[in-house]
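Most newcomers find our protein records easier to grasp once they have seen one. To make this concrete, we reproduce a full record directly below:

…
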Amino acid sequence: MKIKTLVILGLVIILTTLGLIKLNRDYLLLSNCNTINVTTDEQLSAKKVKIEFGISVNTISRITDSELFDNRSKYIVLFDGMAKQDVINKYGENDFLITYDNQYYFSFRQFKFSRRHQHDYNFHFILSDNKIFIQTKIIGKDAMNFTRPMLEIKFARLYRCNVPIQNAGEVYNMIELINTKKSK
């Protein structure tokens, strides 16, 4: 009888703990459950990755992407070869600036509809055809999933929101400015 009681009590404790973790992650915000995971293909190194983060720190109306690098103090460094800080929970425009080896960059915005939404941020770096690609998979209520080539920082003045200035459109899909006008 004691074993049966202990097993039931153990199951109740486990289920209660799992339920509280789920409630905290999606609704309560008792503790920060955001995670960052950075991986690379074997030719690349996570030690060369830097992930910077800010709340509404970048404008899509910038003239060029070189403005992303003008005031780096506006960002919080989340990852610089290793995890440095947790992603804070804020509602709205969460801006990311990701660099590799101080030579390549990519920026994007995740719009969070509630400060209570917590996410798993997964960044994988791939070397393909002598280009570095970032594969981003954000798991949670405000999920995102995309793979894009990183751009050379020395040419940031030629881009706006990750698109060559001459090709930049008027609609921002949180990754790039796309052109919705049909060409003739």
